[in-house]
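SAMPLE LOG
Freezer: B-3
Tube label: C17
Construct: single chain, 287 aa
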Amino acid sequence: MKKIYWLGLLPCFAMAHEGDKNYGYSYFTFGLENVTYQEYYGGTQSKVTITNPVLNSGGLYYINDKFDFSIDALASFSPQSAQEDWKYYGQLMQTNKFEYLKTATNIQLHYKLTDEWRVIGGPALTYQTYTRYGMRNHNGFTNKAFYGTWEETSTDIFVDLGVAYDNGLLFSDKKWKVSGRAVLGLPIYSVTQNTKFEDNTFNDFGMRVSIEGTISYEVMKGLHLGWYAMLGYEKRFETDKQAVLVETCITMVDGVCTERETKNGYATLPEADTHTFSTGLQALWSF
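STRUCTURE (predicted):
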């Protein structure tokens, strides 16, 4: 006979055999996420590195002898600011302050090849916010289209596929537990908006890869404490140009626009690379 266990912190339920009541676990991670973000367009290139605190929670749950599923929810918070540098063929042309926030939810079905090795796949939803302000021009360059504060938001739905190593147990004769996964993701929906072009939506495409792992030690029955680390890379390709209506600055004094005009133009979402390293302390439990 099967029993249903409702998980209060997650909008789902797991079905477990009576003999497998100790299978599966939940976890919570507190750590730091270091992100390097770069954009490229012609001879113009930007680069910024920023570190934010991050929370990550979720768990692994039993379906049957061949399948498990997992849910992971991540959110960065209390955004820090860093300086973003813009260069034109290597010469500094602009600097500005940069803030970055990310939330993500990953739902994966696990097909168990062995007790430890499994093929995983499923949807992932991400929402990213890039905020820029405090722009300063350098070396005679003047950017009259971007000034003040502007924000870019990206909403993505990825389909992930990968491999994982996890025996699904916290109760065993071994005190140490090791788990990990490697994932490739492709977007099926990806939309970016920018407050400078409020009437426009940019549909972009790219890919992402990540590898992560956890090593933990049993401090009491059903409770492990450990260390988590993740390396990730995301690629966004340049989008097609769109006609836009943009407000430009005619007269700027010390980075403050004192006279403006509105004109027609074209805009594109440039090619971009995002490199991520996340690490932190993790608690895993099954009670």
